[in-house]
Amino acid sequence: MFKSFTMELAGRPLTVEVGKVAKQANGAAFMKYGDTTVLSTATASDKPRDGIDFFPLSVEFEEKLYSVGKIPGGFNKREGKASENAILTSRVIDRPMRPLFPKDYRNDVTLNNMVMSVDPACRPEIVAMLGAAIATCISDIPFDGPCAMTQVGMIDGEFIINPSQEQWKKGDLNLTVASTREKVIMIEAGANEVPEAKMIDAIYTAHEVNQTIIKFIDEIVAEVGKPKHDYTSCAIPEEMFAAIKDIVPPAEMEEAVFTDEKQVREENIRQITEKLEEAFAEKEEWLEILGEAIYQYQKKTVRKMILKDHKRPDGRAIDQIRPLAAEVDLIPRVHGSAMFTRGQTQICDVVTLAPLSEVQKIDGLDENEVSKRYMHHYNFPSYSVGETKPSRGPGRREIGHGALAERALLPVLPSEEEFPYAIRAVSETFESNGSTSMASTCASCMSLMAAGVPIKKMVAGISCGLVTGETDDDYLVLTDIQGLEDFFGDMDFKVTGTTEGITAIQMDIKIHGLTRPIVEEAIRRTREARLFIMEVMKGAIAEPRKEVGKYAPKIIRIQIDPAKIGDVVGQRGKTINEIIERTGVKIDITDDGAVSVCGVDADAMQKAVEMIRIITTDFEAGQIFKGTVISIKEFGAFVEFAPGKEGMVHISKIAKERINHVEDVLTLGDKVTVVCLGKDKMGRISFSIKDVPADAK
């Protein structure tokens, strides 16, 4: 049965159509917000997937370029692999919804969001987020929803609910908040040094809007929602837990996990696993789920130690940061390098500078964003966690971590006018034991400064964790979580910023939301921690270097009359290519006449700049030029004084004495100094050699 539901959201109609399309999916919502149209579907397999110990959820955000009237680029002319924006959007949808599925559910679930039309006033990402939640809520898939999501922008200190593409791009805040009925369940933010108090206000402004959306979803579910289906539970049997505790008492498990050395802990758990495998040799059904059972036992042990005993696995205090180390210039010949170490988490970041022609071109749904000048890439090789597997390129996690560190540093980067370079930072994970994305932020900040990028302020980042009890008041926030506390805890709350405010937030949780006191404490703790971390970073490098490094390209910028761009480029690029060939530089010219000359040889760069200046100069009598004789005629010689630019020296203007033949004085290829006499009757530039002042020769 077809039903249509409408509410007003941020001054625009949000319409949800159910039962019109995709009726074979478990749940489908045809979403319209303004003219933005997204089809969101939720489907689940009939049976659990065999042999897995996790919930197999897949979230897709499909960008169809017909939605903005574009034909895809490339040879195939069809959409290919997901863009970075699509991957990041999928992750933002996944993170708040995953905790609301049953923990023992192992059926495959796919949430697909297909963008079919884009209204620049209504961003498709928020429509897909809401569509995924609605499609799942009305389906028969077990889900403890509803949840809702709202985006908040900020211009001139004023919050904007669900901003347009233009407002999102130009504002000082890009915040996405997901909520359940009572609590915040996910936060994602990029910010231009927004103060902590202002950020908390923005988060709970979005939370209030989410409550109105949840009421709307409740109305939809009441009318068209399906009963939730039964499923095969994959929970560990209680009798198995009891048997494990008889063989490995809680005190023994505490001793196994209570260490700050990841390798030691893993060896302890391996020995416990071998002991249990031997004990359960005749219980094949238990052996199949032994790994998950041991994981659950470790989790219960660690959570109890932290929450009840206030003991962390590595012995630190609740608000203590692991040992820190920072250094720069460890990699020779690159443009900038730095390494940041926090406990067993270690990141080496390398910065590369290039002319603006090297910016990344983007083919996406935002018509205003066609290139990206700053690129941050994050790599996570298997050796960083002591494992072995082949490298298959970056996955969604790597792309997400790189984007977070990129977002953290964007607010402090100089403008193109101040620093006309494309910038790429690559974070190589040498060692991982908790929050490598925050270590990437710290390492990248130092690497940028070492490369001579004049960033406005230092940026650092840290992550806080959480362990909760039975009530909202029973919780403990942990500063600087390591891997074990991340795996077994309830929250990974990452915050980056300067001394003035926040530049990025990414919050993941495994429970059904956070109370306001937890959010406020986490934000306060991360501020205290990043200020401490900055002092360590300053010990390695306190401010950006005044110049780019020896091996980095140098750039000279000059401004020319836009009407002269054609003169510099020449017919079919002949002139500009000749300048490049003669000097070995790279040249970029923008439509407004800004010319960037890039190279490593200062003399060659100056030579290229001089050529461009000569080409774009309006010639006047008395100007002095140096040139080359390129043609000899009976009546005189032609001198090229810049690529594609030449003038004539009449035979009477070659020497002070009378000469009968030009060849008596000049030969092809001679380097000569000439003075401009203006233009002759034919409009050609006229030169003289004999009238050059003595002090100009």
UniProtKB/TrEMBL annotation:
InterPro entries attached to this UniProt entry: ExoRNase_PH_dom1 (IPR001247), ExoRNase_PH_dom2 (IPR015847), ExoRNase_PH_dom2_sf (IPR036345), KH_dom (IPR004087), KH_dom_type_1 (IPR004088), KH_dom_type_1_sf (IPR036612), NA-bd_OB-fold (IPR012340), PNPase (IPR012162)
EC number: 2.7.7.8
Subcellular location: Cytoplasm
Superkingdom per UniProt: Bacteria
Catalytic activity: RNA(n+1) + phosphate = RNA(n) + a ribonucleoside 5'-diphosphate
CDD domains, A to Z: KH-I_PNPase (cd02393), RNase_PH_PNPase_1 (cd11363), RNase_PH_PNPase_2 (cd11364), S1_PNPase (cd04472)
Gene Ontology terms for molecular function: polyribonucleotide nucleotidyltransferase activity
Keyword annotations: Coiled coil, Cytoplasm, Magnesium, Metal-binding, Nucleotidyltransferase, RNA-binding, Transferase
Keyword field contains Plastid: no
Domain S1 motif: 622-690
Keyword Translocase: no
Cross-referenced PANTHER family: POLYRIBONUCLEOTIDE NUCLEOTIDYLTRANSFERASE, POLYRIBONUCLEOTIDE NUCLEOTIDYLTRANSFERASE 1, MITOCHONDRIAL
Family (UniProt): Belongs to the polyribonucleotide nucleotidyltransferase family.
Record's protein name: Polyribonucleotide nucleotidyltransferase
Species the sequence originates in: Maccoyibacter intestinihominis
